[in-house]
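Re: glutamic acid structure - here you go.
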Amino acid sequence: MSKNKRIVIKVGSGLVVSEETRAPRFAFLHGLMADIAELRAKGHEVVLTSSGAAAIGLDMIGIEPADAGLQDKQAAAACGQPLIINAYKQVALEFGIGIAQVLLTSEEMENRRRYLNTKNTIERLLKNGILPIVNENDTVTTKEIRVGDNDRLAAKVAQMIHAEEFVMLTDIDGLYDRPPHEPGARFVPEVTDVADFLDATTGKGLLGSGGMLTKMQAANMAQNAGASARIAEGIIEAPISSVLSGRRRHTHCLAHGDPQSAWRVWLTDRLQMAGSVTVTAAAAAGLRAGTQGIGTADLVATSGEYQKGDVLHVYDEQGTEIGRGLTNFSSNETMLLVRCSEEEVSDVLGYDSHSDIIADRDFALLGEHNLSWDRPAESELASMG
Ligand code: GLU
């Protein structure tokens, strides 16, 4: 790598915490930090996303990983996060690297204002040569706002800071075209479209929350934002630079040639579904032709409880996702506005308002590389017909 790059690294729980002793794997952390120090010395900027808080903390809570429920994991993360950061602090000290702890939830990613705020904080840390160490703030995340895996969380960070490289280190050397233990499983060195491999990616490690599926989704997010994503085994000796230089076998998910704008990327790559709307055939055709936003008369159904400013998934009546857009109304208001004409909207709401549920400029049509989400079940859709 010649040019100075921004590199986001994600390390999984199984690398950071020993499955046997449930203590930090200092040899790995040391090798990782030595490599990070070298990359930084060459002028690259690095952000590390590290799992392991829940895995190491479960011991203190006295629960086996396989038996742990959400609350056990939340309590375990509260116990484990300082242990993880302390372990990094010790090894970073040896290389003269200052570290910072950045704990995030999906809200920092999904809410535009918090997203930009978090971006500024990370930029500020990088400017001072500090190594941000990111994890999900598991202790405070309820089921609704939980990302659940650091693969996608780290991918969002890569999008946020416009990283060129996103490296996910795990316990296997990359992607296989079917579960790797199955006979005939073949290694996949290069991926253009992750959609080709989603079916092949079930199963996950014992300690972590992610698996190959979340890694593929994360890779897709990075690719969409113009970053190249790599999945590699977390070895001790030069775990990152050996991958970036191509010296070591790994799966390389190529950055898409024509990266989308930061606004479009933020609108289309979501971690949670706040809500959805289903639109009429005529409105669907209009959206696909790129000519209009979504007005009150275009709605067929809605789902979820959402606020003004949340991003909604937009479906046609067949259940195919068309795009995603920022809503101007809460779900309660949207319900009130069903079948209102443009003139009635202000009267119904009690304040002066236009009738765009989603304005044209706040809507992004899904492109060929965007992964669509299934429409919520029929029982969750409030019909407006
Ligand atoms: N945030 C979780 C932890 O620190 C890990 C999530 C994951 O395994 O991806 O334990």
